[in-house]
Specification:
The chain is of the alpha+beta class. It has one domain. About 45% of the residues lie in helices and about 20% in strands. It is built from two helices and three strands. The termini are far apart. This is SPOR domain-containing protein.
Amino acid sequence: MTDQWWFCLKHMAVEPDEGCPNKDRMGPYPTREAAANALKTAADRNEDWKKEDQAWEDDD
């Protein structure tokens, strides 16, 4: 059983440690499910950062 999982951007699929080069992947993630949600996690984080940046700019 693998300890780390990756999301391959080339194949749009979850991979174990043995897979595509890291330059084509997001991760590592602790579970297969977390890797499967990599794109949503990234989108959610980007949205949070966007809100934080806007709040910081609005402080002027």
